[in-house]
Automatic annotation (TrEMBL), chain A:
<keyword id="KW-0560">Oxidoreductase</keyword>
<keyword id="KW-0479">Metal-binding</keyword>
<dbReference type="GO" id="GO:0005506">
    <property type="term" value="F:iron ion binding"/>
</dbReference>
<comment type="similarity">
    <text>Belongs to the cytochrome P450 family.</text>
</comment>
<dbReference type="GO" id="GO:0004497">
    <property type="term" value="F:monooxygenase activity"/>
</dbReference>
<dbReference type="InterPro" id="IPR036396">
    <property type="entry name" value="Cyt_P450_sf"/>
</dbReference>
<dbReference type="InterPro" id="IPR017972">
    <property type="entry name" value="Cyt_P450_CS"/>
</dbReference>
<dbReference type="Pfam" id="PF00067">
    <property type="entry name" value="p450"/>
</dbReference>
<dbReference type="GO" id="GO:0020037">
    <property type="term" value="F:heme binding"/>
</dbReference>
<dbReference type="InterPro" id="IPR001128">
    <property type="entry name" value="Cyt_P450"/>
</dbReference>
<dbReference type="InterPro" id="IPR002397">
    <property type="entry name" value="Cyt_P450_B"/>
</dbReference>
<keyword id="KW-0503">Monooxygenase</keyword>
<dbReference type="GO" id="GO:0017000">
    <property type="term" value="P:antibiotic biosynthetic process"/>
</dbReference>
<keyword id="KW-0408">Iron</keyword>
<dbReference type="GO" id="GO:0016705">
    <property type="term" value="F:oxidoreductase activity, acting on paired donors, with incorporation or reduction of molecular oxygen"/>
</dbReference>
<protein>
    <submittedName>
        <fullName>Cytochrome P450</fullName>
    </submittedName>
</protein>
<keyword id="KW-0349">Heme</keyword>
Length: 396, 69
């Protein structure tokens, strides 16, 4: 039986076993680090089915929930409030809807001018600095960090603190104590910040949520701390990794990069293709079956865990033609890189806007951008739950 | 099916407010400013918008959209 998690040998390809599983036995059992078994689901159709079926729970604090923490290591938890990530109906819908108004397509569109300013500032800094520059440090991390800090109303001056603690939380090798400590440091920080905002709620996401929840007679501090935590952590690491990997994909496919520079209208599609191609959040999307059911003809019973392998699904030839080709012009929007079903990424349209603006601006303002190291020497995050690059030396 | 007989149906109890429909075609869909759920602007589209309606059904993450023919 295959031992999970598997490691990406090549930044452009899923682990080789994914293709084999999908072709031979698309729903099969694997062994987790804690010794337990779980199902893996690899076909696009089946991944969408599992993620949209109420027979599967997202409650990752349930003792039977499949997780990839090394044996004996519990995942960090916060007993003061559950994040919406781990809620099921009927609890989940209202919790999500309370904040959805902040992430509608319209609201995100209104943020675009400010995102553009942030991206321009960061590129100014990069261009004024030494060559080669580390794209991760100068652009990939600061842009989403600044955007989410501003949206939430968290001082950007504290970003180094979040970045260090988030990185510690998602590294697979971090010990359980260190992981829990990192988690608690961010939570305590947010709690202090929210206490201050409660006195006179400012016009930022956290302040608006305080007002909104108070007017509905439902304000409690703990769920808001939990929400702030989720948005802060989810909002910068993932987008940062996609900025680095997306830039790499363009540099490595110069014809497509030139096509994009000539016609920025294609950026929208290019971003979807990057999301599909890299699927940086892959094994993290898991579920616990809570009612016997069948997926693709395979019976799955209550109590059994399922990993929905997004990267396998996003390379399923039944859903995407020539799935291993990077092609900015393909229709890719039905990918599952943001998940699927009721938990599909809340911040997806913010991520899209940031990525589109970054690539458009970078290609326009730094037309001679190139890698300053061979791809084989780039430090990929093979040891993290979210794929990406630790550093990316570039020059121009 | 003729265009005139199609109708977009949105199940608000299923909608998860991801806005994939609005991204697909803002002429057909909008979102409630408070809770992000879908607002169908034109239930009986015609011309190019017919295709967009089917695309939206395909990308909606919660199968909240369907088309009655
Ligand atoms: S795509 Fe589906 S879930 Fe998302 S807002 Fe539109 S109808 Fe709702």
């Amino acid at each position: 039986m295959l031992q999970f998690p598997l490691v990406r040998e090549c930044p452009y390809a899923p682990p080789a076993e994914y293709t084999q599983i999908r072709e031979d036995e698309p729903i099969t059992t694997v062994r987790l680090p804690n010794g337990r078994e779980a199902w893996v689901v690899t076909k696009h159709e089946h991944v969408r089915q599992v993620l949209n079926d109420p027979s599967f729970s997202a409650d990752r604090l349930h003792p039977d929930f499949p997780n990839l923490a090394p044996a004996g290591q519990p995942i960090p938890r916060d007993d003061t409030a559950r994040s919406m990530l781990m809620m099921d109906p009927p609890e989940h819908g209202p919790a999500r809807k309370t904040v959805l108004g902040e992430f509608t397509v319209r609201r995100i569109a209104a943020l675009r001018p400010r995102i553009q300013e942030i991206v321009d500032e960061r590129i100014d800094v990069m261009l004024a600095g030494p060559r080669p520059a580390d794209l991760v440090e100068t652009l990939s991390l600061p842009v989403p960090s600044m955007v989410i800090c501003e949206l939430l109303g968290v001082p950007y001056a504290d970003h180094a603190f979040f970045q260090a603690n988030t990185a510690a939380m998602i590294k697979r090798e971090t010990t359980v104590d260190d992981r829990q400590a990192a988690f608690e440091r961010i939570r305590d920080y947010l709690e202090d910040l929210i206490v201050v905002k409660e006195a006179d709620p400012p016009d930022d996401l956290l302040g608006r949520q305080i007002r909104k929840r108070r007017s509905e007679g439902a304000y409690e501090r703990a769920p808001l701390v939990s929400l702030g935590f989720l948005l802060l952590v989810a909002g910068h690491e993932t987008t940062a990794n996609m900025i680095s990997l997306g830039t790499l994909a363009l540099l490595e496919n110069p014809a497509q990069m030139h096509a994009l520079r000539a016609d920025p209208a294609r950026t929208l599609g290019a971003v979807e293709e990057m999301l599909r191609y890299f699927t940086i959040v892959d094994t993290v999307v898991a579920r616990l079956c809570t009612a016997d059911t069948t997926v693709g003809g395979v019976p799955i019973r209550a109590g059994e865990g399922v990993l929905t392998l997004g990267q396998a699904a996003n390379r399923d030839p039944d859903a995407f033609d020539a799935p291993d080709d990077f092609d900015i012009d393909r229709p890719a929007r039905h990918h599952v890189a943001f998940g699927f079903g009721p938990h599909q990424c809340l911040g997806q349209n913010l991520a899209r806007a940031e990525l589109q603006i970054v690539f458009d601006t970078l290609l326009r303002r730094v037309p001679t951008l190139r890698l300053a190291a061979p791809v084989a020497d780039l430090p990929f995050k093979s040891d993290a739950a979210i794929y990406g690059m630790y550093h990316m030396p570039v020059t121009w | 099916m003729t265009e005139a007989t199609m109708k977009i149906v949105a199940d608000l109890s299923r909608c998860v407010g991801a806005g994939q429909c609005v991204l697909t075609e803002p002429a057909l869909f909008d979102q409630d400013p408070e809770d992000g759920t879908v607002v169908v602007l034109d239930e009986q589209p015609s011309g190019d918008l017919v295709r967009a309606a089917y695309d939206a059904v395909r990308v909606c993450p919660s199968q909240a959209l369907s088309i009655e023919e």
